[in-house]
Design a protein that fits this description.
Length: about 290
């Protein structure tokens, strides 16, 4: 018996490797290899048909000297920052309200989470109708006539509204999970000291919930910089490139203009931006996160 157990324990590392081999193979084939090859392609000129030609840093020079690229970067930052702010503050406030055990809390949790699990194509169709300048319900309720998706001044705010609306439920659930782990005695002490709801939220809830808030900010920021499907289905980067963002620029350069090298270069510029912002946020966590 002891010999069998010893033999089995010696084979555990090998057996573990066998079980995780499919996942490792998928990661290697579909993530690691494409990452390496796409980085190499950023130094080549290739149109998917002719032979690739090495041109060094020319792709990076081309995109950085293109005035449109600067506008695309600004659009991406505007979208990501706005979405990150509103998609964190609104769910946090809603989670605080629902955590107070109001009547119908479970219904509101479900209603808020439904947009997140709804397919993006359905959301795009519905919101295109809502934003329609002629028959849309939004203009009807506001008694206005705004060409939401066809006006360069309103197209980006419209997309931000849709994105925030979709993310509210997911972030709210994360915040509610964070609320469940908080020390309730501190809230009772604040109530005894005469603190009102706002003071309790500001000086007790937010500091205690700061690790969760930091996590939500990071994942929301990263996902916002990678937005594509919403842009593709609602505006296609228009009007006048007012909603063109980095990931959509990668798609257009690769599969419409067949400039694979420039598309790869844009992708790695986006990677550098996300990496830099994540490192900055990680450095700031000691100042922003309570008891870090």
């Amino acid at each position: 018996m002891k010999k069998n157990l010893a033999k089995l324990s010696n084979n555990i590392p090998f057996m573990s490797l066998i079980f995780i081999l499919p996942a490792l193979a998928g990661t290697f084939v579909f993530i690691i290899i494409p990452v390496i090859f796409s980085f190499g392609l950023s130094f080549f000129s290739w149109d998917l048909i002719n032979k690739a030609q090495f041109i060094g840093l020319q792709n990076y020079w081309t995109i950085f000297t293109n005035p449109l690229f600067g506008k695309i970067v600004l659009n991406t930052f505007a979208y990501a920052i706005s979405t990150s702010i509103f998609a964190v503050i609104i769910p946090l406030v809603l989670a605080a309200i629902l955590n107070s055990k109001i009547r119908g809390a479970e219904f509101f949790k479900t209603a808020c989470f439904l947009p997140f699990v709804t397919p993006m194509i359905v959301i795009a169709v519905i919101w295109q109708w809502i934003f329609d300048p002629n028959i849309g319900i939004l203009n009807y309720l506001l008694k206005l006539h705004i060409n939401w998706l066809y006006d360069a001044n309103f197209a980006m705010p419209a997309l931000i509204i849709v994105s925030v609306w979709k993310l509210i439920g997911y972030n709210m659930v994360i915040f509610l999970s964070g609320f469940s782990s908080l020390n309730q005695s501190l809230f009772e002490a604040a109530k005894i000291d005469g603190a009102n709801w706002f003071d309790t939220f500001r000086f007790v809830t937010v500091p205690l919930l700061s690790p969760t808030i930091f996590f939500v900010v990071v994942i929301t920021c990263i996902s916002s910089f990678q937005v594509f499907d919403l842009i593709y289905m609602m505006t296609q980067g228009g009007p006048l490139d007012s909603t063109n963002v980095l990931v959509y620029a990668v798609y257009k350069n690769a599969f419409e203009y067949f400039k694979i090298g420039q598309a790869s270069a844009i992708a790695y510029v986006l990677f550098a931006i996300i990496l830099a912002l994540t490192l900055i946020q990680w450095k700031l966590r000691k100042k922003l996160v309570y008891n870090e």
